Amino acid sequence: MTSTSIQDGLELLIHLERRGKPSLQRQLLEQVRRAILQGQLAPGRRLPSTRALAESLGISRNIVVAVYEELWSEGYLIQRRGSGTSVADDLPSLPLPPRPAPAGTPRWLPQRPTALGISCPLPPDVIAFQPGGVVIAPLPLGVWNAVWKEATACLPPTAIGPTAGDLELRAALADYLRRTRGVPCGAEDVLLTASAMQALELIARVTLRPGDLAGIEEPGYPIARHLFGTRGAQIVTTPVDADGLRVDALPGGSSAPLVQYVTPSHQFPLGGRLPIARRLALLEWASANDSLIIEDDYDSEFRFDAPPLPALAGLDQEGRVAYIGTFSKVLTPALRLGYLVAPAPLRQQIVLLKRLGDQHPSWPTQRALLAFIRDGHLERHIRRMRRHYAEKRALLSKTLAPISHLAQLRGLEAGLHVFLELRPGLDARRIAQAAFARGVVVTLLDAFYAGKPDRGGFLVGYGGLEPEKIVRGARILAEVIEQEQ
Amino acid sequence: MTSTSIQDGLELLIHLERRGKPSLQRQLLEQVRRAILQGQLAPGRRLPSTRALAESLGISRNIVVAVYEELWSEGYLIQRRGSGTSVADDLPSLPLPPRPAPAGTPRWLPQRPTALGISCPLPPDVIAFQPGGVVIAPLPLGVWNAVWKEATACLPPTAIGPTAGDLELRAALADYLRRTRGVPCGAEDVLLTASAMQALELIARVTLRPGDLAGIEEPGYPIARHLFGTRGAQIVTTPVDADGLRVDALPGGSSAPLVQYVTPSHQFPLGGRLPIARRLALLEWASANDSLIIEDDYDSEFRFDAPPLPALAGLDQEGRVAYIGTFSKVLTPALRLGYLVAPAPLRQQIVLLKRLGDQHPSWPTQRALLAFIRDGHLERHIRRMRRHYAEKRALLSKTLAPISHLAQLRGLEAGLHVFLELRPGLDARRIAQAAFARGVVVTLLDAFYAGKPDRGGFLVGYGGLEPEKIVRGARILAEVIEQEQ
Fold this sequence. Notes:
Chain A is of the alpha/beta class. Chain A contains 14 helices and 16 strands. The first copy, chain A, has helices at 24-37, 50-57, 61-74, 141-151, 167-181, 196-207, 222-230, 276-289, 312-315, 344-355, 363-374, 377-400, 428-437, 467-484; strands spanning 77-80, 84-87, 127-128, 190-193, 213-218, 234-241, 244-245, 259-262, 292-296, 321-326, 338-341, 407-410, 417-422, 440-441, 443-444, 457-461. Chain A has an eight-stranded mixed beta sheet with strand order 4-11-10-9-8-5-6-7, with helices on both faces. In chain A, α1 (24-37) crosses α3 (61-74) and α5 (167-181) crosses α11. Chain A is elongated, with a radius of gyration of 30 Å. Residues 1-7 of chain A have low confidence and may be disordered. The interface between A and B is large, with 136 and 134 residues.
């Protein structure tokens, strides 16, 4: 019997000083007792035989026998005929001591934490109109089971895959983006990420250095602002109107942002769709100023009664657009799957960065997504969810219609939330507080501005809520707004 | 019929200028033709009906009818009774035009790429003794299927999970690390990553600023050196001997590294196991110099005929050890799963960083790993693989025994590779080249030094090779070494 066969792990909790005092027996006794007290040896845990432990520690078996006996007499161990020695079951459950933490601030910890409040937990009975909420339940469970069964039918490869993602998956995704978004790309142009946000973070890390100008929409996506800020970039805001980014207001020359973030399909948060003329003007602006456009094709899958517009990446002739998207909305953010289509030199830099980080999504997850896309489930699910969300949107719209003289719904053409714009003079913060007091949560528009807000209202996300809650919550919201009048 | 129901995607390839010249009909004709030629509309693809397309584009149906007819007469489209209009099947397959790339170097691309050659593809008939190679096949397929079936039996949650990972998985992993590695930790102390390397990258990004001193082993893990280098850190090397890091040679005072990377279970690449006295001395050194120790518990699962030693993280009383590990070796790197146990303030900073990046591994992958650990499969698989690799190691050792006067195997106690140390005077590079000419690949030790190598030889990884190839490859290696003598 070699120590290779001892799997109990007890021996590694023990380290004996041979030349030291106290005696080996005393050292062993105290260390086993401590391991029990600290919960490393749990109640009921079976110990190795005295012979095996003695062999593995390289000490006399007599020592181990004596220690086990002592601990048995103290009540730490029990010995059952035929089943060896175990830790007693009836020990009081002792709390695990907390991991030691450094006293004070060690020199290897940065002084200024990079904090960003992304979400806060809410009471469960609240009706939270949170933007970004989705449901997946209309997806037949059998489809989900089938794609995973296929993806895990064989053992996985034992080597790391391409950093940019599984080649077959990228080909299927490229085909999908070509057909549905008009993005001319092949497998090699696509890079899998964990999310659109990770794609944005990687672009920011590759392109931005301290002091560089980084452009965002105003109001816009706060995480883009934060990400650019963590790179030390100077933030340049450009206002949006009902049609999205005011391309005419983009600064040029030495004030032109090095990178410009834009959400043309469904401006976040106001919901405008960038008209084709502005799209072309934006590309011209990028060309004139040697800037990179980051096209976050946010919520493009969920259009309602509005014709689609070609992605900027499909109009780009000069390789100035990095196109990012996600499966968080069309499936679930729990899958951690997004993507990036970018000019080759940028993509290659991102691959080098990602190769030192998470590399690629887990192989089974990639293969399950491949089966989902290849067998047509993705497009069927998007169709299904478009109907599903259109119904929810209609419910919300209908319930809020009676107060349209006080609050107008904006950005109805696409997405999973709307912007409820209040008539000037109404106090959005007070209304939000009054709604919260009645168990309804909406998000103040103010949070999406870097500077001073030029309008007031809330984001009302309905994607994740049941129809009954949408109606109940919207009624409360309408009442609160009427009372505030 | 609203445009919501049109799913063909053709309409988004089209953008018509209403006030412009040429005519709407001419614009539509040219754009559909271009979409076919560029492969965005694939051969056999069915087009929307003329009525649906006209409605979705907001133009007269007559225009669409005329365009379809023209393209039919040109041979681009076919019209079949009862099945509408499709793209012709017999079009020559046209290459997709490459995505445009920026001309020259745009100002948003860094000048100096961060390059690191991690792997290079090899001819398939070669016997590659690559370090890090593993197999998974001894795992019963039924076990693999069962854990995934459980993990995907229900639809996934529609919200993002904790950045540090699924709490149940972290609890199971903490339990495992407590029992098998003597690391005192609870669920909240564990953070899931994609790999040990990602854990290291996150630690480096949180702790190191340009000019900081970062310590590595010499020879050591080149990726640690590279990662610290990308942070602008100054690299401090400390020599290793047969027992691992020469703790007595670590610089102190103002020359003490801020972070010190160490591989105590199986020094990479030489294979030494850090004795308990050195472990304690290393912790004392860290305390005296306010330094962070990064313990990469590399290959700790695969010990052979050697007693286990407690992890540094289990001996640490001051919260100065960040402990990192991976499932890449015990399962496969294709899963992208690793972990980190670190002092709370460091962990919290890493969570903030990861929240802007990949966040957490995909939910089904985490749940499958949870089932794998919880049902005892992980420990059974490690036992199985320990026997498996021990047999391979014995084969390699036996085959190379006849040349032990020329080359000695080192680091036999643990891991999935050995270091084959050549007698002084033998030229390792020439031997590697001669072996390569005969189809056998070994890795020169030189690549693992930041400075001048103090010994010569190769790493011989056997984990991923079949027994027959190990014997054949080792015989060739032995012959080449004898001839070089």
